[in-house]
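Re: the 110-residue chain
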Amino acid sequence: DGRLHAFSQDGLFVWERERWRRIYHSERITREAIRTILEDRTGAIWLGLNGAVMRVAEQQGTVLDLTRWIRKDDTVQSLLEGRDGSIWAGTRWGSLVRISVPVFHQVNME
C-alpha cells in the first residue's frame, strides 16, 4: 500500500500520502532499542525490543515482556504474522515465541 514505518527519537512515524505522520511517542522507547517493525492485518504496529515486543494500536503502546521465555539479554530481531493472526518473534539467540495476545507460547527449537 506504499506506507513505510520508521522510528526516531521523536516517535514512531508512518510515511503515507507523501508525508510523515507521527503515530506514537514514548519516552520509554528509544530508537536504539527498536530492532524490527511489523504492521499486522489489524493495522497494529509491533516493535521488536530488547527482551520484549511492543504493540502500538490506536496511539496506545503495550509492552509485552518476553523474558519468561527468552534470555534476559536477548533481543527480538524479527517479527512475522502467522495465517491465524498470531505474531512470531525470533530472537538473536535463536528463541522463537508465538504471541496470540494475551497468551504466549514458547517453541522448542531442539
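The chain has a mean pLDDT of 85.
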